[in-house]
Amino acid sequence: MQQGLDAFLVIGDVYRRDEVDRTHYPCFHQIEGVRLYSKDDLLGKKPDGSNAANLFTPTPDTQRIPEKQETHSIDAVKATEIQLKQFLESLCDELFGKDAEKRWVDAYFPFTHPSWELEVFYNGQWLEVLGCGIMEQKLLESAGVTDKIGWAFGIGLERIAMVLYGIPDIRLFWSKDSGFLSQFAGKLPGEDVKYKQISSHPQVIFDISFFLPESTQFNDMTSDVYDTIRTIGGELVEQVKLTDEFENKKKGKKSQTYRIVYRSHEKALTKEEVILR
Description:
The chain has helices at residues 39-43, 74-96, 137-142, 157-165, 178-181, 223-233, 271-276, and strands at 7-15, 27-37, 101-109, 112-122, 125-135, 149-156, 204-211, 237-248, 253-262. The chain has a six-stranded antiparallel beta sheet. It has a three-stranded antiparallel beta sheet with strand order 7-9-8. The radius of gyration is 28 Å and the shape is elongated. The N and C termini lie far apart (66 Å). β3 and β4 form a beta hairpin. The chain is of the alpha+beta class. The longest helix is centred in the N-terminal third of the chain and has 23 residues, at 74-96. The chain folds into two domains: 7-171, 2-Layer Sandwich (BirA Bifunctional Protein, domain 2), CATH 3.30.930.10; 204-276, Ferrodoxin-fold anticodon-binding domain (Alpha-Beta Plaits, 2-Layer Sandwich), CATH 3.30.70.380. Residues 11-189 form the Aminoacyl-transfer RNA synthetases class-II family profile domain.
């Protein structure tokens, strides 16, 4: 298998006209995957060394039918379909677990025929995971590929992330709200992470810097600083994070800067209200 020529992934931004709501946004991220097969790769050979079947029909003007394109042989299409579905079902097993129920639904896409959507039964409902199909042979021919057949699929990353992490609104992926971003900072793909609801009201941010007393050392894992700040700020303190450290070697002093994020679940706070506390 030639990586990069016969098998590759393309990841990028997708832009389209969409009304913005909880599940739609004019920009999202997509993974496109392609796998091509030569006749020997896909169909193999007979025991005597001859080809088992052909990728293409002898007459190029064969009529297109729901099961296949004009030039494809039915054997090649069925073999490619098996490879495609086995691969993508294995992908879904990795994402949703091997026990998740799956089903294939006939679909239409302009660059594949036949085409399908793969759905997974997850959290009590059928979820559309991806679209795929046998690549249009004319598309391959336009790229100079005349002796291979292949499949392609596309999967939206935000859609999958929303399901796996329990994120209720696609617009959060473009948020700079640290209440959202901090929940996923430093996490690995395999970790069990679930989104925790944040307030719809805006954050109020203050930075505080101070010199440490002699023989005292704080770090961002020290609970004393956090507990002290939360004792004074109360339940309005959403986050406390060490953001900077400085050492004045001449004076032998160290200073630290902490970012304190305030937010209310009941109303929009002002900086004046926070200062008065």
